[in-house]
User: Fold Carbohydrate ABC transporter permease from Leucobacter albus.
Amino acid sequence: MTDTVTAAPRGGGTRAPRRTGALRRGALTASFLAPAMVVLGALVVYPIIYTVIRSFFSPDGEEFVGWQNYVTMFTNETTFTAIRNNLIWVLVAPLACTVLGLIFAVLLEKLRWQTAFKLIIFMPMAISMLAAGVIFRGMFQESPNLGVVNATIVGVNSVFSDSASYPGAKPRPDQGVALNDGIIATESAVRPGSTVVFPLTGVKAAAVPEGAEQAAEARSAAATEVAGTVFLDVVRGGGGVNGEIEAGKTGLPGVRVDAVAPDGSIHGYATTGADGTFSIAGLDGATEYRVALPAANFDAGFQGVSWLSASFINIVVILSYIWIWAGFAMVMIASGLSAIDRSLQEAARVDGASEWKVFSKITVPLLAPVLIVVFITLLINVLKIFDLVYVIPPGTSKPAANVIAVEMWTVSFGGGNNQGLGSALAILLLLLVVPSMIVNARRMRRERSGR
Assistant:
């Protein structure tokens, strides 16, 4: 009896196991991806979809208003200010941080203590944006007594300025001089050859220059002169006679004194010396003059720049951002700098290239991928800047420093209570950020593929 053996179809025995293995691998992959996909959907996809839908509804969410929120957004002056400021941020902040980071990375590489210097520059990254905003707001306060920047500027100005200022000064009553519209002048006109005194009060001790000396009697005036003394009519510790020049009373140097003719014109002037004395020469002996101390002697003088005003607030906020993020750019670029082929630089130097040529023609092109990464990262970051813009500007300057993220928060939660308009602003911000993210993703994909 002959046994008949039937041959199995070619390949049929392995097709089912292969299909089963593929299914198993797919299920395993899905099991690993599922938690991340759930979190991604809950925290990213769902909020985006909900925000898009919410942007078509009224502030309370009860009425469908169509494109009304978008029309309102683009016809609102505050939105235009926010878009303009975001444009300024995009043009200035990322480029400035990237350039500074490149300069720091290249220059600090040649220093002996480069690690310490890099740590100092990177240190602001360890400070929260909120704390950095508080620091910069304090530094740029308008009052020199509070803001270190204006205190420095006023201090430097006082070194190079010869004028003195005595804010708050006023004449001693019943001494023949009076205050009128900020000008302290003699109550009656005097002829040349006379001497006058200006006993003043209300001057703070801190306003008296260090070079001020004991007040002295003016010398006898000539026939074409008017002489006198401007002094602080106060004796430390009390005592003394009002209006009299006595020991312990200080002359006020640097005060301008004018001789004013009856028609109001100034025929001569002088500046008091260290002991407060002055002498106005060249006057007409037949004319009577009123001797006056101009109001400029008693103003507060130069008090710095109003950095937190609407004119300068964007500069201050952008400077604070650069202070924080320049260290991040430096570290990123320094890591790329450590990975480039140094033989190319050495070969260029051997061929006679200057350091600038080596930097601009070799170092920068080799660092181009890193520079692009840093620039795009900072670009995305400044488009959604919020913390610094919200913290640094005082109330009067907030409209001038407004950006889209702050405007979105303000109309939604900061008193506007208009969730529909806030959602429209959020979608606008998303549309501005997405192109940069797409460019960055494509660049990363090209780098992985080696093209």
About this structure: The chain has a mean pLDDT of 85. The two ends are 69 Å apart (CA to CA).
